[in-house]
Hints:
- The chain has 209 residues and is of the alpha/beta class.
- It has helices at residues 32-48, 115-122, 124-138, 144-156, 175-187, 200-207; strands spanning 2-5, 26-29, 79-84, 90-94, 106-108, 164-169, 192-195.
- The radius of gyration is 34 Å and the shape is elongated.
Amino acid sequence: MAELDTGSSGGSHKKGDKKPHAKKQSTRIDMTPMVDLAFLLLTFFMLTTTFNKPKAMEVNMPVPNKDIKTQTKVKDDLTITILIGKNNKLFYYEGIFDMAKPDLIQKSNYSKDGIRKTLINKNQKVYDLVSKFEQMRKEDKLTEEQFKDTVRWAKKDKKNDGIFVIIKALEEAKYENIVNILDEMSICSVVNFAIVDISEDEKKAIETL
């Protein structure tokens, strides 16, 4: 609450003065109610705020399987192997690795025009389908549940030629780079991917690149 102090600070005027001096008034604001309101609002927001739930990314780790008959068969033309090197270097090759073909391994980077563009071009059919469903969801033509079901179908249906990505990293590779590649799997609509150990031949091949 505001209070006015009407006490005179200048004293009385003399008898011969033509004009009397005006009394000075000072204002004092009581901040107590405002402080109480601030604490009430703070308590209200603390009790009603919903904290973000931690999100976990699914990573498919292959289980050792020596039985050739039960091993998963993947088409060579639908397989891409990503090699994460040290000093933020990135490489990839398609199909089966062959030391006799040094040009098989290509350099890339973590930009949208780098490994992302390569993955989208290779996974074009699935990527286009998922993008189509996302647009339909924005236009309310699909419910959230329908959207999830159609995206799940598009990613797993073998007729859509979804790619399989194998991720390999050197021991000197940064953890941040591995996370970035895992993010690219979601961005490029890649559902089949796995992290495996890099071979000695692959290490030698990228040392000179």
